Amino acid sequence: MDYDNRQEEIKDSGIDYISIGRTLLKNIPYILMLAFTFGICFFGIWNRIRPDVYVSKMNMVVISRDNTLSSLGDYNINNVVGRCVSSLNSDVLGSRVREELDCSKLPGTIQAKSVEGSNMILLETRALSAEASFRMMSAALKNYAKVSSYLTGGYLMEKTGAPLAAKITRESNNAMAISITIFIFVILMEISMIGIANIFSGRIQNATQAKKLIDADYLGEIHFENKYAKKSILLSNPTVSFTYSEEMSKTVTMLLRKLEKSRDKTFMVTSVMENEGKSTIAANLALKLASRGKKVLLIDVDMKKPALYRILDREIPKGRDIVSYLEGKASYEEVIFREKNDLVNYCFSTKTMIESDILLTNEKAKELLKRAEEEMDYIILDVPPAGIIRDVEVLASIIPQTILVIRQNMAKARNINDIIDLLERGGTEVTGFVLNAVCSRVVGRAGAKAYGYKKYYGRYDRGPANNHDVKVRN
After folding, report:
1. Are 408 and 310 part of one and the same domain?
2. In this predicted model, what pLDDT tens digit does every residue of 298-336 receive, in sequence order?
3. Which helix (H) or strand (E) holds 456?
4. Residue 25: how many CA atoms within 13 Å on its side-chain side?
5. What's the confidence (pLDDT) of residue 464?
6. What is the C-alpha R_g of the chain?
7. Above 90 in pLDDT, residue 406?
8. Is residue 379 a contact partner of residue 369, using CB atoms and an 8 Å limit?
9. Are 346 and 336 in contact (CB under 8 A)?
10. Which of 119, 342, 435, 441 is spaced 20 to 30 A from 314 at the CA atom?
11. Which residues, other chains included, contact 379 with Cβ-Cβ below 8 Å and sequence gap of 6+?
12. Is-contact 277 405, C-beta < 8 A?
């Protein structure tokens, strides 16, 4: 597939709002944490550089010395008021106030401004405390007459009252309101960024995208099944939902059509990444095929992280697993576990092998498959993730068909198609893919823990493997 126009293809395949909603829900703690951090930081910085101030105000009037109205024409008023304002804003008054307060620097500011169209002046003092603002106003009113007398000529400035502490007001810097605005803005920005990143992430979010972007046939989708108290998500468990069972049935129907055309009896089930649910899907495919009267053998070939015996809750006798057979230490009959109805049969893996790919290429592996094909209608191999472990590349040369399990919103379409190309170059045909753990609502747990995968799988060790504790019986 040409990925030069991948973003356009993803856009055309439809935006999955449910996936975006789930991603946002999952990241709510981080979204709130980042927004809260920005809000708190701004609140602290803003309060430091622009703290609240206390304002004391006094109205003053300009009148003529002889108290005659003829000298108070419009021109005279504006001219005299302007000179009075200049005197009150001058450094001279500031020096007088400093001397009065006995300080080297004013604890705030003194500002005068005219009231347009009148002979009134508004004098304000601002300081970080109410006391400092009140003291500056008192000192300014005590000294203003000395400063303005030589500038105003035949006019006087008179205060309209006495300064009162009760009239001092606190002027807020609005730090809280601005911080809340920033908090909301950051949240909206994060939501937008997460939404855009989700849309263009390249991860498979729904069946529509999957059909358009993946170079393989669509077999079906399996909706998320909440595990809760269920021991395992198997069709043999009566607590599994009807929807889950029906979706598995549809998937098996599609699979059988493909296998009947190719006339192949053997196929392996793999995934691109770990914890996509391949082992559970493999087990349920076997159970569903058996319910249709097919004789099935399910083999756990995942020797890096064996999970099938855990999912089925089986106790495996020591020396009766597939590794023992491949090493020539056990016979075919000893490693095949048959059910009472003789339709579902299992071959388990319980050991972690470092060089499992070598065991899978020996003659014993081919003998096992040949013998199984003589007895069974279908042989299913649960293999490691193809994007992590080399074993799948080895098996691709001897297993004719492969089913790919893709968990919603995990693997990218580019990586999935790369794995499909790798498998087909190895010799196997990718029969199709199953979209697993599909969520059709925003609220509801869809993590690997809820689905029960991590409980069984854990993580694949990319370094030297150690044997895991398994349930074996001597």
Report:
1. yes
2. 999 998 889 899 999 888 999 999 999 999 999 999 999
3. helix 453-457
4. 13
5. 38
6. 41
7. yes
8. yes
9. yes
10. 435
11. 265, 266, 267, 296, 297, 299, 369, 372, 373
12. yes
Q: Clarify whether residues 379 and 246 are in a common domain.
A: yes
Q: Is the pLDDT of residue 134 over 60?
A: yes
Based on the domain organization, do 344 and 298 belong to the same domain? yes
Please write the tens of the pLDDT for every residue from 203-249.
898 898 899 999 999 999 999 987 755 567 899 888 899 999 999 99
Cα–Cα dist 74/292, whole Å: 106
Is 267 in contact with 402 (CB distance < 8 Å)? yes
- Of 288, 248, 220, the closest CA to residue 431 belongs to 220
Contact 426, 397 (CB under 8 A): yes
CATH number, residue 294: 3.40.50.300
Residue 70's CATH number: 3.30.70.1130
- Residue that the structure tokens 């060790």 belong to: 461
Strand residue runs (E) in 160-249? 169-171, 218-223
Q: What is the 3-state secondary structure (H, E, C) of 134-169?
A: HHHHHHHHHHHHHHHHHHHCCEEEEECCCCCHHHCE
Residue 6 covered by a domain: no
Indicate whether 42 pLDDT > 60.
Answer: yes
Is the domain of 189 the same as that of 117? no
CB-hemisphere CA count at 13 Å for 263?
A: 0
Residue 244 within any structural domain of the chain: yes
pTM: 0.70
- 105 — phi, psi (to 5°)? -145, 140
Cα torsion 328, 333, 337, 342: sign = positive
Question: Based on the domain organization, do 148 and 258 belong to the same domain?
Answer: no
Kindly state whether residues 25 and 75 are assigned to the same domain.
Answer: no
Same-domain check for residues 144 and 186:
no
As a whole-number percent, the residues of the chain with pLDDT over 90 amount to 54
| Total domains present in the chain | 3
Q: Where are the beta strands (DSSP E) in 272-427?
A: 296-300, 316-317, 337-338, 344-347, 378-382, 401-407
**Structural domain for 151, as ranges:** 53-171
Cβ count near 185 (within 10 Å):
13
Has residue 2 been placed in a domain? no
Residues in Cβ contact with 168 at an 8 Å cutoff, skipping those fewer than 6 apart: 54, 55, 56, 130, 133, 134
In this structure, of 39-48, 160-169, 270-279, 391-400, the range with the lowest mean pLDDT score is 160-169
pLDDT at residue 453 greater than cutoff 70: no
Assess whether 44 and 103 both reside in one domain. no
CA dihedral sign of residues 455, 457, 462, 467: positive
d(CA 192, CA 185): 11
Phi, psi of 90 (to 5 degrees): -75, 160
Q: Which residue has the higher pLDDT, 177 or 231?
A: 177
